[in-house]
Amino acid sequence: MKKFLFFFFLSLNLNAQAPNIVYILVDDLGYGDLSSYGASDINTPAIDKLAKEGKLFTRAYANSTVCSPSRAAILSGNYPDRVGVPGVIRQFKDNDWGNLVNDFISLPQALKTSGYKTALIGKWHLGLESPDIPNERGFDYFKGFLGDMMDDYNNHLRGGVNWMRENLLEISPKGHATDLFTQWSIDYIEKNKSSKNPFFLFLNYNAPHSPIQPPKKWLSSVIKRERNSSEGRQKLIAFIEHLDDSVDKVINSLENNNLLDNTIIIFTSDNGGALHYSASNKPFNGGKGNMLEGGIRIPCIVKWSNVIKPGVVNDPIMLMDFYPTLVSISREFNDYNLPSKNILPLLKDEELSYDSRFMVWIRREGHVFGGRDFYAISNGRFKLLQNSPFEPYKLYDLEKDPFEENPIENKEVKSLLLKKLTKHIQVSGNIPWQ
Fold first, then answer.
1. Spatial contact of 404 and 281, defined as CB atoms under 8 Å apart
2. What is residue 336's predicted lDDT score, i.e. its pLDDT?
């Protein structure tokens, strides 16, 4: 018993020096909607500064083209359909397409074994009741929104229901949701600035998901500056610039509390931008909801002062890869037979421990899809996809045709990708999702 306690407290002491983690996940941000990713009509200085000081990924992929599956992948390190979330979880049961399995070790649970405190601020979107709420999935502290989208960023209701919570308590805060989540994150950072344990803060903004509701002063400024843009585009620009300002405030809080140098900051999105709300996924075709690159390729930036050198990474990664990466930073990691990859070598400009990989995307949905699922799979160069369960697969060579303009015929490659995809479907078919 004494030996156990010795190593237990020794572990806590060692992990007190582990880096804090601030993982900022935004909602529906297009690949082309940051100035650091080529946008000419948007000013995002805070996020651009992160990109300049850290690693900017050009081939980061969401695990799905919609919200809940990507979030499930981040928290599990696994494909979303293998943890029960092939589609969007909603409060409307006739259009609800997922339910988290109970027998997986979540990212915050894994980090807690290394002495981390864990918090989720903002959007959850992986369940509305026990056992599928943040406090029962590894988060010590939760303050935010359980549901999917807000019908209004200022009253925070969805379908007339208030899903705002502080841990298990229903709350009714006043103010724009982006500002609330920012201030709550700053409060958490300040509360834990002197903690002997590192913290994992998972900050999930609803923005820039619809409804597109920037504060008036931000919209007025953009209207004066971007006179030639459509009204919809002006609103989205203002929404994203307000979001960037919020990110700046969170980073400033880390700096003001002397935590910035020992904090890993990740900034990314859960899927591509929604084209019908004037998002840009340039230079790629497609957008949120489909399997073209614009629907699944996302901005992704990682900063870790004095450890990660600034630069650009062109290797393909998926959101689920941050699970083994972050856990391995704090301790030796058993991969739990996960399909995700430790990308720490990429961050440190080292060689990867694997030569290649197959990546799979899934979406199950109601509406015109009738509750069926559709897929894409890629080996990094070739990509096989469908944008509806009712259409045939199309094959693209991303090396020669990165914008997916001209599908090709290659029976050998198509057969290989279909074989790999079939195996994935066979395995995930054993997982209940409702």
1. no
2. 75
Q: How many CA atoms lie within 13 A of 394 on its CB side?
A: 15
In one-letter notation, the amino acid at residue 130 is S
- Listed by start position, the domains of the chain span 2-347, 359-428
* Residues whose CB falls within 8 Å of the CB of residue 298, separated by 6 or more in sequence, listed in order: 29, 31, 60, 61, 62, 268, 269, 270, 271, 272, 319
Q: What is the percentage of the chain residues whose pLDDT exceeds 70? A: 96
pLDDT score for 354: 72
Q: In the structure, what pLDDT confidence band is assigned to residue 7 with cuts at 50, 70 and 90?
A: very low
Average pLDDT, the chain: 94
Q: Which CATH class is domain 2-347?
A: alpha beta
List, in sequence order, the alpha helices (H) in 32-172.
45-53, 67-76, 107-112
Cα angle 133-214-46, degrees, rounded to a multiple of 5: 80
The tens digit of pLDDT for each residue in 386-397 reads 999 999 999 999
Give, as one character, the DSSP assignment of residue 309. P
d(CA 162, CA 155): 9
pLDDT number for residue 30: 97
Residue 226, C-beta contacts closer than 8 angstroms, at least 6 positions apart: 41, 233, 234, 237
Q: What is the 3-state secondary structure (H, E, C) of 342-411?
A: CCHHHHCCCCCCCCCCCEEEEEECCHHHCCCEEEEEECCCEEEECCCCCCCCEEEECCCCCCCCCCECCH
Tokens of 53: 């000081």
Q: Is the pTM of this model over 0.90?
A: yes
Other CB atoms within 10 Å distance of the CB of residue 2: 5
Per-residue pLDDT, 333? 83
pLDDT at 197 over 50: yes
SS3 269: strand
Beta bridge mates, 376:
361, 385
Mean pLDDT score, 230-246: 98
Q: What angle do the packed helices 322-330 and 67-76 form, to 10 degrees?
A: 30
Q: Decide: helix, strand or coil at residue 159.
A: coil
Question: Degrees (nearest 5) of the Cα angle 411, 412, 416?
Answer: 115
Mean pLDDT of 34-48: 97
Three-state helix/strand/coil letters over 15-45: HCCCCEEEEEEECCCCCCCCHHHCCCCCCCH
Q: Contact 90/96 with Cβ under 8 angstroms? A: yes
Residue 130, classified by CB atoms within 10 Å of its CB into exposed (0-12), middle (13-18) or buried (19+), is exposed
In CATH, what number does 359-428 get?
3.30.1120
* CA 222, chain centre distance (Å): 27
